[in-house]
Every structure is written in C-alpha cells, then in structure tokens.
Amino acid sequence: MSNKGVSAPYSIRVIISKALYLCNLFLLIFFIFFPREVINSARDGLLLWFNNVLPALLPFIVVVNILVAIGFVRHVSAWASPFMKTVFKLPGAGGFALITGLVSGYPMGAKTIADLSRNGEITDKDAQRLMAFCNNAGPLFIIGVVGVGLLGDAAAGYALWAGHVMAAFVVGIYMRRYGEKNENNGMYVRHSNSGNINIGSVLGESVKNAMEALLLVGGLIIFFSVVTGAVTILLGSLNLRFMPEGLIAGALEVTGGVKLLADMAETPVSPLRMAGISGLIGFGGLSVHAQALHFTSGTRINARVYILHKAVGGVIAALITMLLWLAFQTYVSSTIMAY
After folding, report:
1. What are the φ/ψ torsions at residue 325 (nearest 5 degrees)?
2. Structure pTM?
3. What is the DSSP string of 302-325?
C-alpha cells in the first residue's frame, strides 16, 4: 500500500526545516563577519520602534484595551451591525476590529481580533475572515511617514492610503463566503459586567498589557531590521536592480523596503514605483505577520490563510494605487495644459 499521502507532508516539513537551518546559518555568519552592519541595523530598528511605533501605538493599545474591558464593543456592534452584515456578512463586533485596524495601524487590527475572539464576541470563522482585511497600516504611517516624509508628496500619501483601504474592502467582500460550509454563523457572546468595573484595575492592566505587547513588537522590529540588513547586503553583492531589492527587503520588513523604493523615486513618483510601495504596505511584511501571529496565538486562526490573503491584498492595493496615481497625474497634466 502506498504511503505517499504520509510522506508528502513530512517531506514538506523537512524542506522547510532545512531552509530555516540555512537561513539561520547565514544570519550567524553575517553576525560574525559584519558586526558593524548588525549593530547599525539593530540601532535603526530600535530607533524606528522608539521614535515612531511606541508613541504612535501605546495610546491606541491602552484605549482599545479599556474599551474592550468596559464592554464598549456592544455599543459598536449595535450601530455597525447593519453595515458589517450587509457588506461583509460579519457581526457588528467586527466593525470594532475594522475601525481599529484602519485607524491605529499594524498590528492593532490583529490584536483586537484576537481579543474579540478570546472574549467570545466573534466566532473562529469570523476571526479568520477579519484577519484577512482588518490588520492594516494606519493613515499616520501611510500619509505622514511614507507620503510626506519619504516621497515628499502628500498627494502620493493619500493615493497610497486610498488604495490600501479600497483593497482591504475588496478582500473583505471576497471573504464573504469563506467557511460557510464548515461553520455556522452563531455568536459566542459573553455578557459584560461593566456595572462592576474597577477603573484603576482596568487602567493598570491596560497599560501593562500595552507595554508587554509593544516590547514584543519592538523585539521583532529590531530582529527583522537586522535580517533586512543582511539580505540587502546579499542582494547588493548580486547587483540586482533597485526595484527587486526594495520589494524583497519590504517583504521582510515593510518600512525598510518602502524606504528603499522611496529613496530612488522619480519626481513625480512613477505609477510603477507607487504600485510597488503600495503592494508592500498592503502585504505588510513578515515582521508585521510575526507580530500578528503572536497576538493571535491560542486562537484557531490559520496563519497560512491569513498570509495568503494579505499577499492577495497587496497585489490588489498595488493595482488600485497605480490606477489612482495614473488618473491623478493625468488630471494634473490636463489642468496645467489648460492654463
């Protein structure tokens, strides 16, 4: 009797294990022979976390933790339910995750979804579907950091943000039918005891939880900054073109990859480079996914399904942004010609 069905998955696991061994061996060699680059990359990751991620996310995480603890999700569910059910076939509580993910940025969407799942506000199927389109980059990063800071063009930032949001909605609508045959649409809701809340305890736990989460995020950002530095040196030695180098680096850590593409951006920025930057932001990078999967550990969210749909979302965001930027440049050119 053939045992192919047993050996195939085992072979895949062996291949993945061997690849991980080789990657870690490469990193170890890089640490030994390029200590200056390791320190500089780690310092860049630390400064990125301390100057941008920590001040931007800490207030959001604390406030979101407090809102969840006092049962605010119930109120959001009430007014968001018609929209969420009509557009995404999801319960109203998913609206809280959608808003948090769009406003706060990575990885707040994933953390909020995980909290809702653990509290019984949403089902496993709902959590899986929400993860596909609610763990997004925030407008502060896209418009402020990328558009104004890196590209020097606020209009480019707004085009990137619009493409990012539209792509998220497209993926969310596409996921309407996910899991319909495997799970019912029932809700597992716990009743809030918001009438007996110790505000001091809630605030303290919220801050503690936020700091623990951000320390984890900081460690992952620093680690992936070093990995990106190693890969960048390797790609540089291979004399690859700048665009592939930025895309590969961004697939690991989104900020570094976006910075590489933005550093060589034309004036005005070409639609192709805008598509590349948008695709990286839409995908998020392995650093963001590692953060998201840490927060969702203990839930039944499938990592492969999540990452696959983030990749699809990145492609959709790239196409939408390229079309938006082409339309914008055409409009500007026609306006200038008219005068």
Report:
1. -70, -35
2. 0.82
3. -HHHHHHHHHHHHHHHHHHHHHHH
Assign residue 182 a region (left: φ > 0; alpha: ψ between -120 and 50; beta: otherwise): alpha
Terminal alpha carbon distance of the chain: 79
Q: What is the pLDDT of residues 12-23, one digit of tens each?
A: 667 767 777 888
Helical residues (DSSP H) of 105-153, grouped into ranges = 108-118, 124-134, 139
335 and 170 Cβ atoms separated by less than 8 Å: no
Structure-token match 């604390």, residue found: 62
Most confident range, picked from 61-65, 92-96, 161-165: 161-165
From the list 184, 218, 216, 206, the residue with the least C-alpha distance to 115 is 206
Total Cβ atoms within 10 A of residue 170:
17
CA angle at 173 for the pair 167 and 176, rounded to the nearest 5°: 145
Residue with tokens 């579907």: 129
